[in-house]
Amino acid sequence: MNEITRIPTSTELGSSAEPFQNLHEFVNRARANLNQNAWDYIIGATETETTMRRNRMALDEIAFRPRVLRNVARIDATTEVFGRKLRLPVMMAPVGALEIFDPAGAAASVSRGVGRFGAAHMLSSVSEPGLEKVAEAAPDALRIYQLYVRGDDAFVEDRITRAMASGYTAFCLTVDTAHYSRRERDIAKRYVRESRLRATGGDFQKGLEWRTVKLIKDKYKIPLILKGIATAEDAAIALDHGVEWIYVSNHGGRQLDHGRGSMQVLPEIVSAVKGRAKIMVDGSFCRGTDIVKAIIMGADLVGIGRLQCWALAAGGETGIVRMLGLLEDEVVRCLGLLGVTKFAELDKSYLHPAAPTNLPSVFSAFPLLDIQSYRY
To answer: Does 41 score more than 60 pLDDT?
Structure first.
């Protein structure tokens, strides 16, 4: 991976001329750049939006127990996954229709940005410009391909073959979208995205079963990820099929309403897996402290969804790199203030249950936002 200048931790960030000094500033710029339809697409969720709020509440219900008087002059926030060293245990989660946030570059901008920084990108099969062009644009990035099944076995096999030929490190099957949910922010405006109008083959996703997982594992030598696992029972079945990665996700609260928050689900999955597979998680992770909490709880990689879109809409590829730099700065400071120099020194003794201090919302991690100025 290419080296870029890290944000100096010895000085206050406010002294820099860099336009993005805090993560909330990406949200402000994105709001200014996006029309109402694109804005509602990324901030919204399903029906009552309860699952989305529980994602944030589950994170805010965890407090830290820091240790002091330890030498934390040098902090290492790196990790190794898929045989690659990353600067952070972070992956840009698969988001459909990224082109509405960056028409010029779309998913290619994200891959190039994570490649420059040294993180990972999971490309959604419903984001432009498609798997081959993204691979050409970002050959050095750690790229994973995520598929919505829109055809028969031959369709699935074609996508896997193309992903492998284009150098994708792993293949992800999304399993929590058997039916497309009711996104009521869109319904209320009678708005349908162009990508939804073009979408066909939904019945294949409805009919998806474990036999497809077996087909993939029997035929292909590429690490398989199942995205949307929310119970220990399904995690156990995945292990029985030889799945290498369990991806704990509720689609950012955009599929099943009244689900559990991802950080409420994560301990159940970690207990069921018992180290026999690696674990990814997403769901309202948008601060460095969120990443640290997830790693302590047993995740190996943390997916960033909405914050990715805000950074992309705010600054394109450069916005992605800067956002990751700010997350890295937050993670490094968090580790140091907890009294450790690397993730391996952490365990659950550093966590404690707590009552949330903010009402959970898509913006509650950003207290400096003037959300009253947004149509929310």
So the answer is: yes
Q: Is it the case that residue 12 has pLDDT exceeding 60?
A: no
Do β-strands 142-147 and 170-174 pair in parallel, antiparallel, or remain unpaired?
A: parallel
What residues act catalytically?
A: 251
Q: In the structure encoding, which two tokens stand for residue 103, read together?
A: 């028409």
Q: What average pLDDT score do residues 182-200 get?
A: 81
Helix axes 262-273, 288-296, angle to 10 degrees: 30
CA distance 248 to 26: 26
| Structure-token match 């697409």, residue found | 41
Total residues belonging to the chain: 376
- Percent helix, strand and coil across the chain, each rounded to 5? 45, 15, 40
What distance in Å separates the CA atoms of residue 144 and residue 131, rounded to the nearest whole number?
Answer: 10
The predicted structure's pLDDT at residue 74:
98
Most distant CA pair in the chain: distance in Å?
59
Do residues 27 and 369 touch, judged by C-beta distance below 8 A? yes
Measured distance CA(326)–CA(333) in Å, rounded: 11
Residue 209: per-residue pLDDT: 97
Query: What does the alpha-carbon distance between residue 150 and residue 85 come to, in Å, rounded to a whole number?
Result: 34
At 375, the amino acid letter reads R
- Residue 189 DSSP code: H
Q: What angle do CA 228, 229, 233 make, to 5 degrees?
A: 155
Helices assigned H by DSSP within 128-175: 131-137, 153-165
* Whether the predicted pLDDT of 285 surpasses 90: yes
Distances (CA, A) of 49 to 52, 196, 260, 297, 308: 5, 20, 12, 25, 20
pLDDT tens sequence across 228-244: 999 999 999 999 999 99
State pLDDT tens for residues 80-126.
999 999 999 999 999 999 999 999 888 999 999 999 999 999 999 99
* Whole-number average pLDDT of the chain: 93
Q: Which residues touch 104 (CB under 8 Å, ≥6 apart)?
A: 316
How far apart are alpha carbons 147 and 91 in whole angstroms? 16
Residues 290 and 273: their CA atoms lie apart, in Å, by: 22
Question: What is the SS3 assignment for 342?
Answer: strand
Euclidean distance between CA atoms 343 and 357, whole angstroms? 26
Give CA–CA dist 95/99, Å, rounded: 10
One-letter-per-residue 3-state SS of 78-100: CEEECCEEECCCEEECCCCCHHH
